[in-house]
Amino acid sequence: MEKINVNEEQCIGCGACVAIDPEHFDFNDNGLSSVISNENLDSANLTSALESCPTGAITKGEGNSCSKDECNCCSDCTNDENCDCGCENCDCK
Q1: Residue 16 is part of which domain span?
Q2: Would the pLDDT of 23 be above 90?
Q3: From residue 6, how far is each of 14, 34 by CA, in Å?
Q4: What is the pTM of this model?
């Protein structure tokens, strides 16, 4: 399943994605970008938001950028079966 991913280690919280595409992005409690919807992934606003990210922290693809060896879905992920980071983009559990 294709979905949007935000690498919180790369995100600087500039807000470009939130301003361009509030359908898909909002700020989390840490002031960083957070995905709020994985619907309508072909929208022009989503494409613009991805292209506007100055750090390249936002990607769109199958699953996410997590793997069993390395997880970069968020800074709280422990990358194991006991992970309780709560990141909606985390598939490494």
Answers
A1: 2-62
A2: yes
A3: 13, 7
A4: 0.68
